[in-house]
Specification:
By secondary structure, the protein is α/β, with parallel strands linked by helices. It is about 50% helix and about 15% strand. Bound molecules: (2Z)-2-iminopentanedioic acid.
């Protein structure tokens, strides 16, 4: 490993030992950058890597809200404005009880390179709260969102920082946040949030974009091997917005998603999650306050494996779509033994470092990284910003064309970056190098700060 990369990594591990997810994400990216640092000594001279692993700014704030019984609750909110070298900070908000500084920083760090890969002018950011939306009424969600944005509104804006959804934050939450933002600022600045409803400036296809983009990316990988998606079986995890989009596009292209999963276990549906009724069932489970993925198994009379993950099921393609760290060493071994040929990460950082190294070392497996595969989501968010600033609405066909071209470009530029450094068809290193290079160039050109 390049000495400079090694020293920066050692520093991050030392300084942030209490932030394991952040250390993991930094390790994954920096491990790919040795050949770049060898070729560009000027980056070390400018101490570029130490600058990149430190957020430009990050803040926490108090979010107080009242439940339906008149009782007060206090949560913590975060926003990390990690890197603004190529555009306004851009990234989602995650509402989940396990959210902490490490998780927000890992997501923000990933977002820098992901957003760069889209080819659009967006910097990296992320935010959220340790608020748990499960079981909350609509009125409670509204009061929480209003309180959250009251604390944050001074620090965001269409040219400053543009939040969006992530886990626990969908169209409903974005609506309540935009309503409060508009009330506080008294201006029509709908480009300050993305993932909006269509009635006030949302983009067609934004809900589908992450899942559709992942399948388009997969098609590019298959194309590289003269392979085709038609007839393929896909083992996926999760059952949220991203998994839904993956199932929908896979079905349209003649592939079958045969597993989906939740906290309590996984569903095996050999016919595939591919009818309108099945796809809608996912949406219903997500929208209900007490639904679980087992409801799907009961309704469609397919097996449910309580307490288990789908890894090891026989499938052509694996697509983890649930959350970070869902695949450790044990799961990676099961995946390698399953005979699958493609491991396509979708959720942010689903694979632990050692499991990722193991999977990448398997000759029969092609591995693709989440920061490239799931970039269609934030990419269409950037298209939503463009539509908002132009005060017009693109058709679904126009958005889809852009999304397809974007995913092809992300795949091709990653492959080209790996090739340039003599790494062969290495989509993981390639994505890190391609994403890094644009941000590095912008930082160098803008001087030291
Ligand atoms: O992880 C992600 O890229 C997102 N949650 C979407 C971010 C965005 O700004 O659309």
């Amino acid at each position: 490993m390049n000495k400079y990369v090694e020293s920066v990594l050692a520093g991050v591990r030392d300084k942030h030992s209490e932030q394991p997810e952040f250390v993991q994400a930094v390790t994954e990216v920096l491990s790919s950058l040795s050949p770049v640092m060898d070729a560009h000594p000027e980056y070390e001279a400018a101490d570029l890597l130490n600058r990149m692993v430190e957020p430009e700014r990050m803040f926490t704030f108090r979010v107080v809200w009242m439940d339906d019984n008149g009782k007060y609750h206090t949560n913590r909110g975060w926003r990390c404005q990690f890197n603004g070298a190529i555009g306004p900070y851009k990234g989602g908000l995650r509402f989940q009880s396990n959210v902490n500084e490490s998780i927000i920083k890992f997501l923000g760090f990933e977002q820098i390179f992901k957003n760069s890969l889209t080819g659009l002018p967006i910097g990296g950011g992320k935010g959220g709260s340790d608020f748990d939306p499960a079981g909350k009424s609509d009125a409670e969600i509204m009061r929480f969102c209003q309180s959250f944005i009251t604390a944050l509104y001074r620090y965001i804006g269409p040219d400053v920082d543009v939040p969006a959804g992530d886990m626990g934050v969908g169209g409903r939450e974005i609506g309540y946040m935009y309503g409060q933002y508009r009330r506080l600022k008294g201006v029509w600045e709908n480009g300050t949030l993305t993932g909006k409803g269509m009635s006030y400036g949302g983009s067609l296809l934004r809900p589908e974009a992450t899942g559709y983009g992942a399948i388009y990316y997969l098609q590019n990988v298959l194309h590289h091997f003269n392979d085709d998606i038609k007839g393929k079986t896909i083992a996926a995890s999760g059952y949220g917005n991203v998994t839904w989009g993956v199932c929908k596009k896979a079905a349209e292209l003649g592939a079958k998603v045969i597993t989906i999963s939740g906290r309590h276990g996984y569903v095996y549906d050999p016919d595939g999650v591919n009818t309108e009724e099945k796809l809608n069932c996912l949406l219903e489970i997500r929208a209900s306050t007490d639904g679980t993925i087992k409801d799907y198994a009961d309704r469609f009379n397919v097996p449910f494996y309580a307490g288990q993950k789908p890894w090891g099921v026989k499938a052509d393609i694996y697509m983890p779509c649930a959350t970070q760290n869902e695949v450790g060493m044990e799961e990676a071994k099961a995946i390698a033994e399953s005979g699958a040929r493609y491991y396509i990460e979708v959720s942010n950082m689903p694979t632990l470092n050692d499991a990722m190294s193991f999977l990448r070392s398997q000759d029969h497996l092609t591995v693709a990284p989440s920061k490239a595969v799931n970039a269609g989501g934030v990419g269409v968010s950037a298209l939503e910003m463009a539509q908002n600033s132009e005060r017009l609405v693109w058709t679904a066909e126009e958005v889809d064309e852009h999304l397809k071209a974007m995913m092809a470009n992300i795949h091709d530029s990653s492959a080209a970056a790996a090739e340039e450094y003599g790494l062969g068809y290495d989509l993981v290193s390639g994505a890190n190098i391609a994403g890094f290079s644009k941000v590095a160039t912008a930082m160098m050109e803008q001087g030291v700060f």
